[in-house]
Amino acid sequence: MATFNWEVYSDTPGWKDVSTNTIVFSGNATNLTTPITVGTWQSGTHIGNGDPGTDQCGTAHVPNAKYVSSTQFDPGTGTTTLNDTVLLTTMCSLRIKFTDASAVATSSARFYSFDGSTETNESVGIEAYAFERGASASAWTQINDDSGNIGGDNSGERLSFTDQAASTEHYFYVAVSARPETVGAKSAFDFGIALTYS
Domain span at residue 79? Predict the structure, then answer.
């Protein structure tokens, strides 16, 4: 049976399953309740047990990859070039693990942001970018812009993942950066993944 696990690099640190938690973007590297100023990218990425609930990161917070420009990010130490050399797997916001009892190859895999109910609808009040580490890419992909009607599982509005050869385990490492377009908490903001395997 095929399964997905959503994981973050935190706590001891190590990869931790967060399928029952919430990924929280905040305006502070250590406090998940600090709001992000409208038009400003997040300064912290955390695990919450609600919206946002209380911090579940443990001894080390989730790495924060902050959008700076289409080809740059800030991991908390200053602006740097976005590529596989600089952005390590342990600096990514998420690791999505896809497993199957049989060795299968993946194709048409994609990562997207949506409103939490309809997979083709963009997240509400959010602008977001994503980057797949290990795909030899050098630029962010915009996955959401509510004011521009961009987002959801739609061609040209999601991040396409690199195809992977047959295996029982597949890993997708993703950096995500987000900012609010309007004042207030954003509850209609979820991530999704879809793929074909054979």
Answer: 3-197
